[in-house]
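This entry is passed on directly below:
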Amino acid sequence: SQLHESLRGGFSKVSAILVPKPTLEDRQAYSENFCRNLAHKCAHLKAAGEPLKIGGKVIEGMEFAAGFDHRDLAIQSSGMSRNQIEKSFNECLNLGIPIDDRQIRVVKQKCLEEEYDGIVEFYHPTYGFDQVGGHEELKRYFMEKIAKPLRSGDVRTCSGGILLVGPPGTGKTHFVLAGAFEAHTNFVKLNLGKLMNKYVGGTEERTEMMFEAVRAAAPCVVLIDEIDVALPGRQSGGDSGVGSRLTGAMLTFLCDESRLGKIVVVAASNRPDSIDAAVIRSGRLGDILPVLPPPKEGEASFQGRANILKALASKHKVTFHKELQGTMTDQMIGLGRLLLDDTQIWTGAEIEAVLKDAIGLAV
């Protein structure tokens, strides 16, 4: 896209060949080949009496951490090029340490931040639905329509995209991260606000770069947070039509059937009424799912808040004093009376703020 049109036009007799980033299978094959070739080279040098040494240590091949193999490396290195994967290997060899998911994440974060300028963020989910309180129906939907189909690549039953709606603090982003963990896939967050570029054609170029990164990360769950703000309407003015073209490109991507079973787009919004109707039609973000706090009163409210509090305690690795633990099931005393049976609406973020205050006071 940075070349002049005369070099890319139909009369230039130049054919444009897209060389995409390696897929999951490509990354696994590259890792296996790299390690096989390295082991062969080391064995050959050792037989010749000149073993390969780095920092005085004899190298016989690439060492992997316990429980970490080529498949794990391929999953964790989503979005990385072959050169970047090789950089991870070389750093481990120079440091004399086995390669593991932590080393991959360190190199990946640095390389991708430089390459994508914050447009695309890759995360490694570390927790599942056991650290999400409540939302049982939502969990069931995610497992049946997203997690299980993504694991098996089932195009027929996998949802192409959903919209999570609800007030701030109900844990929409937290839920999607946990869902990606349950699906055993990558988690990608798109920052559409950083796509805008002051140079002519710059926004379109960055948009294509974003889509390339997402396709390279497949299988993955993609999050677009606050989509009502991040994605401008097609009638937006004052930007020479850039916002309209960006929305059009996103609509085209959401309609792309080739991503089904590989890439699931999850959007989140506090104001679903502000979203372009074309974005949330069937075939794009067809399912609109509410993410709400527990109700004001009743047994559902009590159980919902209790589940959220237990999940947050697990997340922050804290335990309650035995006297407090007993009050979590009694609506008349302690936690049950003051928090869990309060008639005020409490979101997950507000309950977490109370828990953090308690942790601070205890420390």
